[in-house]
Structures are given as structure tokens and as C-alpha cells.
Description:
The chain is mainly beta. 0% of the residues lie in helices and 40% in strands.
Amino acid sequence: VDVSPNGSWLIAGAPLDETEGIGTGAAFVWRRDAATGAWTFDAKLVADDAEAFDEFGQDVAISDDGEALVGAPFEGDGPTG
């Protein structure tokens, strides 16, 4: 699991998430409320072209304005890399 906080944003990768199939992966985004400081779930990201063992979410990053970058190291390669 890779976690990347950035100011009022936080993104966590879950490369073994199976929402779209075995090992397809996902990333979860939270936003911090400026007034209360509380974290609120914002989005679950999955690949549009998810395939088994892509491991989307292996590496994640998020910018100050909430733009996310999510890596899928085995996209198109299957379980053998």
C-alpha cells in the first residue's frame, strides 16, 4: 500500500483490491475540511481498462489541487510482468 498526503488531500493505493477483478487494484482519495480539520472520503478510483493483476494503485501521488496520479505496473502484462 502506498499513501501520499498533500495538504488537504490524501490518496492511498490498494493494488490488490478486487472490485474490478482479481488484483486489478484501486486508489482511495480523502479531502480535509479546512474549517473542521476532519477527513472526508472523496472518491474511489479504478482503471477504465482494468484487467486482472494490473495492480492499479501500486504507486500514488496527489497534487495540492487534488489531481491524482496512479500507477499500474503490470497493466497489459498480466501476472508475469
